[in-house]
Amino acid sequence: MDDATVTAPAPDEDIDLAYDVFARSCPSRHTLEHVTGRWGALTLGALSENTLRFNELRRRVDGVSEKMLSQTLHALERDGLVHREDRQTNPPRVEYRLTPLGESVAERLLSLIELIEGKMPEVLAAQHRYDGRRPA
Amino acid sequence: MDDATVTAPAPDEDIDLAYDVFARSCPSRHTLEHVTGRWGALTLGALSENTLRFNELRRRVDGVSEKMLSQTLHALERDGLVHREDRQTNPPRVEYRLTPLGESVAERLLSLIELIEGKMPEVLAAQHRYDGRRPA
């Protein structure tokens, strides 16, 4: 961490990184945003528990609007993370579930979510300290 | 997770599952958003490589504005994920680095980022299929 020498990375280090979220024009940055955006993360998390219908998802992802959930699902479906299954019944029944790729993404996302939930006492203590030492 | 041995949590801490990102009023949802928001994720990722000064960070997080980077750093510092070190030199030299908590968060985030970068060919193929089967 205290490496004073901020040089270019060794050439062989970054060599197989064809995609790089740090580069603003890289398409991987958009996918990262779909996955980690407020509603994207919660939608993937909810679907990792169950195949769900639209309204079930809406209840689970507390606070999401119909419009935002619909946009979120389209983006995740387009990225190949969510599969939309139209059961062609009457009344129509549409279900959403994770693809295998969506499952592996959700797994890493959930590991992050669980860490954050578990560390909230530490985070809240830090917020308390921070707010206490700054003028209002 | 359903541990029955929930006896005496420390007064200021809550039991493990007291925090739930799916609940809209849970403070963990805010922290998840700071960590996974567009600039939060890239800032944590950049700092996991090195201690950096503001302008170094700005260059690494390609596309971020001064204002957004500043807001992002404040939120991450307040959550106890980033430490801001003012070296009191002339000219002033302020450095940012991850706290131990920030390091463990960044580790899980990077594992997600690496997965996404590695799976981009699959994502782009899915996007191609999706765009092809929908009317323009």
TrEMBL record, chains A, B:
The keyword Transcription applies. Pfam families: HxlR. InterPro entries: HTH_HxlR, WH-like_DNA-bd_sf, WH_DNA-bd_sf. It comes from the Bacteria. Residues 26-124 form the HTH hxlR-type domain. Keywords: DNA-binding, Transcription, Transcription regulation. GO terms for molecular function: DNA binding. This is HTH hxlR-type domain-containing protein. It comes from Streptantibioticus cattleyicolor (strain ATCC 35852 / DSM 46488 / JCM 4925 / NBRC 14057 / NRRL 8057).
